[in-house]
Design a protein that fits this description.
Blueprint lengths: L8 H11 L3 E5 L6 H14 L6 E5 L1 H6 L1 H8 L5 E3 L3 H8 L5 E5 L14 E5 L10 H9 L5 E6 L10 H8 L1 H4 L3 H8 E5 L4 E4 L3 H9 L3 E3 L2 H4 L6 E8 L5 H9 L1 E4 L2 E4 L3 H12 L2 E3 L7 E3 L3 H12 L5 E4 L3 H10 L4 E2 L5 H6 L5 E4 L16 E4 L6 H8 L11 E8 L3 H23 L3
Parallel strand pairs: 1-6, 1-9, 2-4, 2-5, 3-4, 5-6, 10-19, 15-17, 15-18, 16-17, 18-19
Antiparallel strand pairs: 7-8, 11-12, 13-14
């Protein structure tokens, strides 16, 4: 099928960058068109006989809802999907398709990739852990892949240490083969018993300088005028009753009638406090049973939706109990698991779409169905936050995007929000160091 869209000039530059390099990475914020850029370069590689067959590795929902949809828009590629049952995966891999798309969770099930000589890692941060099961399984069988490209929105969303694994899978010549040597060179060990390392002075700049030749950075100035503004608004709300929250924070224990909720350690109390900032707490570990003591966020959400004239809105949640309360309050709401929900949302037929950042955090095109988003609670991951915002604020959006962040006053919500801003500062420094000269 002939392509129906044309790349913008900055996207063509990125596609050329990929075409000219066997090992390369594209660092581009959400909505900048990484998939379109890569499809263009992939098709040119196939046409010129440089690559005979591509393997694309991506999060599952991106495999099913992004690559098959975007491919006919930007190329003549018809990808085969190695997603689903073992038989379906085998059929796709053994097919004659020049491009096969598979999800990260199935990497450790692959036995032979000798028919592929090119690979694209969409959302490269999924491979930040070189000691992980899928990473090790992939390393053993990808020797035939001469061409290796990675796509990401941020190498350093959770810290500089994440960069090593991502670069190693693309090109071991960038930062070396051994993570231990990488840590010794660029970090200072603060606790050997727990393997805690902090970057040495100037480490971020040094690492970015090392990987710059293999990285194309799509600078904000290149595309920001192509997108409408994104307005982020804090919506502060007060707990109806602060006493339970303060007791948990102080004593790691709180009692509701006959139920006693205990946090075993600091990590557990952090989780409990985030739940309580939303007005509930799980009564047992594993999310079995919950106790509600405040509906402040949900009451404010109702008001906010009414204030926006019931405009189509994406609501991001963290806990299943939050989802359950959203469904109780808004029976008409849809989730990412409902049939054809992405298509219906983009046709403007879904007033309220409920999504966990992990299920809506990568690659999905939701910009055609609405321009309002509410974070009922926040993820700790900057990458997930930015990727979720990027479902609406991306190429093709025609209206101003409004992001509402609900924060319970004097709670851990404020700490999480501040932590995301701190991580953003690190990412901004990395971006500055990586700018192509």
């Amino acid at each position: 099928m002939a392509q129906t869209f044309q790349l913008r000039p900055y996207q063509n530059q990125a596609a050329t960058f990929l075409y000219e390099r066997d090992r390369a990475m594209i660092l581009a914020p959400v909505g900048a068109g990484k998939t379109a850029i890569t499809l263009t370069a992939m098709e040119e590689m196939l046409f010129d006989g440089i690559v005979n067959r591509w393997l694309v590795v991506a999060p599952k929902r991106v495999c099913t809802d992004v690559w098959p949809v975007e491919a006919p828009k930007w190329s003549g590629i018809v990808p085969a999907l190695a997603v689903g049952t073992p038989a379906q995966r085998t059929a796709a891999i053994e097919s004659d398709a020049s491009v096969v798309v598979i999800n990260y969770d199935n990497l450790d099930k692959l036995k032979d990739l000798s028919s592929f000589d090119g690979v694209v890692f969409d959302e490269l941060t999924r491979l930040k852990n070189p000691s992980g099961k899928r990473y090790k399984a992939l390393e053993k069988i990808m020797s035939t892949m001469r061409i290796r490209w990675g796509l990401t929105g941020s190498f350093t969303s959770n810290g500089l240490e994440d960069v090593f694994g991502q670069c190693k899978i693309i090109d071991q010549g960038l930062l070396g083969r051994a993570k231990g040597a990488f840590l010794q060179q660029y970090f200072i060990c603060t606790n050997r018993d727990f393997g805690q390392w902090v970057p040495a002075a100037g480490a971020l700049e040094q690492v970015m300088k090392r990987i710059r030749p293999a990285t194309f950075v799509l600078e904000p100035g290149e595309y920001k005028d192509k997108l409408p503004p994104c307005h982020v608004t804090e919506v502060r709300v007060a707990l109806d009753d602060r006493a339970p929250y303060e007791r948990m924070k102080r004593d790691y224990v709180v009692r509701f009638g006959d139920d006693q909720i205990v946090a075993q350690n600091a990590a557990a109390v952090t989780t409990k406090l985030q739940q309580m900032a939303s007005g509930f707490v799980y009564s047992r570990d594993g999310g079995a049973g919950s106790i509600w003591f405040s509906r402040h966020k949900f009451d404010r959400l109702e008001e906010l939706l009414a204030e926006n004239q019931r405009a189509n809105t994406l609501v991001a949640y963290t806990y299943l109990e939050e989802l359950a309360e959203l469904k109780r309050r808004f029976p008409h709401a849809q989730t990412m698991d409902d049939d054809n929900v992405i298509e219906r949302w983009n046709r403007g037929e879904v007033e309220l779409l409920l999504a966990h950042p992990k299920s809506a955090g990568h690659g999905l095109n939701l910009q055609h169905g609405g321009c309002h988003m509410v974070f009922l609670s926040l993820p700790w991951s900057l990458e997930l936050y930015e990727q979720t915002v990027g479902r609406l604020h991306r190429s093709g959006q025609t209206k101003d995007v409004w992001v509402y962040v609900m924060l319970t006053e004097k709670s851990i919500d404020e700490r999480i929000w501040a932590a995301l801003h701190d991580k953003r500062a690190v990412s901004d420094i990395a971006l500055e160091e990586l700018k192509n000269e």
